[in-house]
Write a structure and sequence with these properties.
14-stranded mixed sheet, protein phosphatase activator activity, Leucine-rich repeat, LRR (right-handed beta-alpha superhelix), little secondary structure, 2 domains, 335 residues
């Protein structure tokens, strides 16, 4: 620094307002020992052990999002009775590579968030039979496993991993939401037993065919964008479906939609749809349709001037939005 100052005639001005983060062990010093929650976010915490969480015997929730934690072994020091009291563990966005065996000791846990870490294997969660929400978004997981006893689980998020096969979900009879976007899944399978499922997202995978959905009669939202689908099929059982997203696939013809009478949203941008009469015929039974997306299809690209007018003629008065624009005013959604 001295050389640079001398060479270029610069002067170093000390910063008197440096924001110095306290050491890990100091972060919990002023927290009351009878607190029911620990909430330490974005503090560059590197050591769970230094927080000495065992001092807090009334905890119900631990939130340590957005830190630098690598290991969870220090959870072993928490009082056994306190472990039974805790309902939520949140380690979103840290540097965790392995799920510690001590996570399995929090048997009344209802929420576990380990998203945005470096986890490769789902393990040491077998005893968490009361879990309702489980988040593993953006890790390095390649296999769905060890969830068999989670019969109360309602929401499972595994987006942004390396999963190739949908498997080992049969026992998740309470599951209402399943998020599997941005994985390496090539086939829709292993879903037949999920009869309470309301939301299924398998965006940005390698799906070529819509199949294996016959048991999902309660499904309300299905997201299949950014796959390799060329034909709409296998949807007849989805009589309660309200939202269908097939954006960015290879669909040239709309078909197989007659059973979707409850549909309110149909998103089909960036496909190969070129026929307005086909759109009308395929969606004529969806009398409650409110929103459609067809931008990026030949019908829009070849005649953008008349595109919206012709689309409106395909549907009844229920239609409110076309491609994020209100039908009546042309205002953007949200304005």
């Amino acid at each position: 620094m001295a050389y640079i100052e001398k060479t270029y005639g610069l002067t170093t001005i000390p910063d008197t307002n440096v924001d110095v983060l306290p050491a890990d062990q100091e972060l919990t010093t002023d927290i009351p020992l009878d607190t029911t929650y620990i909430d330490l976010i974005h503090l560059k915490i590197g050591s769970l052990e230094n927080l000495r969480l065992e001092r807090f015997t009334q905890l119900e929730s631990i939130n340590l999002r957005d830190n630098l934690i690598v290991r969870l072994n220090a959870l072993k020091h928490i009082d056994p009775q306190c472990k039974l009291r805790i309902k939520e563990l949140d380690f979103y966005d840290n540097r965790i590579k392995h799920i510690s065996s001590h996570v399995n000791e929090f048997t009344n846990l209802e929420i576990l968030d380990l998203s945005f870490n470096n986890i490769k294997h789902i393990k040491h969660v077998e005893n968490l039979t009361r879990l309702e929400n489980l988040y593993f978004v953006q890790n390095k997981i390649s296999k769905i496993e060890n969830l068999d006893r989670m019969t109360l689980l309602q929401n499972l998020e595994l987006g942004g991993n390396r999963v190739e096969t949908i498997e080992n979900l049969d026992s998740l009879v309470s599951l209402r939401q399943l998020w599997l976007g941005q994985n390496r899944i090539s086939r829709l399978e292993g879903l037949a037993r999920l009869r309470n499922l309301r939301v299924l997202s398998i965006q940005s995978n390698r799906i070529e065919k819509i199949e294996g959905l016959d048991g999902l009669t309660a499904l309300e939202e299905l997201y299949l964008s950014n796959n390799r689908i060329s034909k709409l099929e296998g949807l007849d059982a989805l009589v309660n479906l309200q939202v269908l997203d097939v954006t960015s696939n290879a669909i040239a013809k709309l078909e197989g939609l007659d059973a979707l009478t409850q549909l309110t949203d149909f998103w089909c941008s960036y496909n190969q749809v070129a026929d307005y009469s086909n759109i009308h015929d395929a969606l004529q039974h969806a009398t409650s349709l409110e929103t459609v997306y067809f931008e990026g299809n030949p019908i829009q690209l070849k005649d953008p001037t008349m595109y919206r007018t012709k689309l409106r003629l395909c549907f009844g008065d229920s239609l409110q939005k076309i491609d994020a624009l209100y039908v009546s005013t042309g205002r953007m959604v949200g304005q």
